[in-house]
């Protein structure tokens, strides 16, 4: 990792903001480009264009807490 990059806990995905700015290439919740998948420019995170995949719940997606009544 260099000073200008951030490392994901799992991997980076595009945010809704990224999709709105560049809908032809970026879809919210999809992994970012393979060569940046785990280590990406810090600016993208600061600008809200990417987030860690663990922070995304896609619409209609069920998780464990739906079943255990958490």
UniProtKB/TrEMBL annotation:
<protein>
    <submittedName>
        <fullName>Uncharacterized protein</fullName>
    </submittedName>
</protein>
